[in-house]
Amino acid sequence: MFETETKRPALPWGALVGTCVIAALLVTWALQGSLSGAGFPVGRAATIAVGMTLQAIPFLLLGVVVAELIEAYLSPALIARVFPTNPLASVPTALLAAFVLPVCDCSAVPIFRSLLRKGVPLSAATTLMLASPAINPLVFASTLYAFGSWSLVAARVGLSVIVALTVGLSMLVIPPRALREESLLDTDHGGDACCCEHGCEMPDRSVSGVLAATGRSFGRILPFLLGGVAASTVAQVLWPVSSLLSGLPAAGALALMMGAGFALSLCSSSDAVIARSFASLAPTGALMGFMVYGPMMDVKNMALLSSQFRGAFVARLFVTVTAVAALVVGGSWWMGVLS
Fold first, then answer.
1. Distance CA 84, CA 92 (A)
2. What is the DSSP string of 27-49?
3. What DSSP assignment string belongs to 191-205?
């Protein structure tokens, strides 16, 4: 008889590396007084990095939990009843879902991948991923709190909807092969509900099984999140946005604030407060570029997307979102909608 080879479980290197990095950040933050010097402001960088990490991790964990619950409990048949199989018809459903999901951009990426694995059309999943961090109830409340203007809240939500819809519908023109696994976006799979090349194993639907899957997914994604935090921290320390705004023309101010939204990688539930601090330096149109573009595309979610999807898809998504956001916000500003 042949002995069956037992496959050893992979070590959770991502979780181990992430834990070590977070521990090092906390130690550096605690010792920031003794580390301050004339060179690179280590203490300030550690404070920014710790703050961003502690802010992002709960939302990332929420997204991973939701994604694993979708994997375990929502059948493709149920998803098909919620999201029409017609890619064009499913986009409005995705937009409605985005209004009620209180998720940040970190949460949206794992949910996006899970929906794709369940057969949701790419156009609808993309719309949901881009819109949910920008138009959910937490964003409504924080924007109203920061600016005290319902018209500005309506402008932010309206422009975000237009950008998300446009980018989502653009996926109908030349739908890219988004997932690393070729078969996961193959809609012609002969009735195989999970689209797997060699068939599927039923997911473990027990509480312990879902928790274990959550831990594995979180560990894989965490190092990419921390890489995004590191890049954003360097940008915040070395890139004084406020000093660069003075004297810029409208197009330059819009480009700078969109770049700031990308580099600072703020959570969409709090970015309006930061935008308000630039109100005396930047016109409303530029602030709107910061609040519309940042939740959809920033350093953190680019890192998370790169951990899950092909580079060609990530690059295409980045270029499309950037171009559409610039045209929509810039066009609205030029036409006097944003004053």
1. 10
2. HHHHTHHHH--SSS-HHHHHHHH
3. T-TT--TT--PPP--
Question: pTM of this prediction?
Answer: 0.71
pLDDT at 282: 83
Tokens in use for 182?
A: 């070729």
CA distance 330 to 332: 6
Sequence-separated (6 or more) residues with CB below 8 Å from residue 212:
204
Residue 237 burial (10 A CB sphere; 0-12, 13-18, 19+)? middle
pLDDT tens digits along 220-231: 777 767 776 777
Name every residue whose Cβ is closer than 8 Å to that of residue 74 and which is 6 or more positions away in sequence: 118
- DSSP 8-state assignment for residue 159: H
Closest CA to 52 of 270, 246, 215: 270
* CB atoms closer than 10 angstroms to residue 271: 24
Q: Tell me which amino acid residue 20 is.
A: C
